Amino acid sequence: KAGVTQTPRYLIKTRGQQVTLSCSPISGHRSVSWYQQTPGQGLQFLFEYFSETQRNKGNFPGRFSGRQFSNSRSEMNVSTLELGDSALYLCASSLLSSGTYEQYFGPGTRLTVT
Amino acid sequence: QKEVEQDPGPLSVPEGAIVSLNCTYSNSAFQYFMWYRQYSRKGPELLMYTYSSGNKEDGRFTAQVDKSSKYISLFIRDSQPSDSATYLCATQGQAGTALIFGKGTTLSVSS
Questions:
Q1: First to last CA, chain A
Q2: Phi, psi of A92, rounded to the nearest 5 degrees
Q3: What is the spatial distance between Cα B98 and Cα A99, in angstroms, rounded to a whole number?
């Protein structure tokens, strides 16, 4: 069974631009969660989508948004990029909602904002 | 106070050593406790989980939770160079809530 895939793997953007990251979950998984990982803050939860509905949201500004499609693929968007948005963005899929420890992570998208 | 605290290390040990990785948490409502391993340039992978207090063993790995002291531990016996990675502890309160991660401890096992 194919794992979680994320595209692109690496991205360089300029401050003020916007970016869209994509995540394809494991086949049959309906929940996709997004995390931001930085050396200073570690892994921080952004939001979770389950069956196209946002179920949980972390403590991030409104510049961070996401959506999920009917095939469970998910995208996250960051508008008006800031230097502090440079991070590894990870998505994780699970069979049920994020109320399960069995989350499977993708390799991440490394975003650099200059 | 952060909800989950983890010493970032780095921790360097020789091959064959017993490794102890630890986290503390602040919220007594947390019920589920997990350890993830993350290799360089990869996403985290689930190693072990425990529910409430107690021990759980899987091969060379043992996870331990002490709810009275809000302490989570992962022990690695006979450590191998392939164990070199960052280890992240995570907790969860009620089902349906998000995972809360520690910042991770970087482990290096030298042959």
A1: 37
A2: -135, 140
A3: 7
Are B98 and A108 a contacting pair at CB < 8 A? no
Q: How far apart are CA A102 and CA A14, in angstroms?
A: 35
CA contacts within 13 A on the Cβ side of A3 = 14
Chain A closest CA to B94's CA: distance in Å? Answer: 7
Is B44–A97 a contact, with Cβ atoms under 8 angstroms apart?
A: no
Residue closest to A105 by CA, chosen among B105, B46, B27, B17: B46
Instruction: Note whether A56 contacts B99, CB cutoff 8 Å.
Output: no
DSSP 8-state secondary structure symbol assigned to residue A96 = S
> Are the beta carbons of B99 and A100 separated by less than 8 Å?
no
Which tokens sit at A39? 């050396």
Coil, strand or helix at B83:
helix
pLDDT digits (tens, 9 = 90+) for B28-76: 888 889 999 999 989 999 999 888 888 999 999 999 999 999 999 999 9
Of A41, A103, A104, the CB nearest to B99: A103
- Cα dist from B108 to A29, A107, B80, B103, whole Å: 34, 21, 9, 16
| Chains A & B: contacts with CB separation below 8 Å | 62
For residue A95, the model assigns a pLDDT of: 81
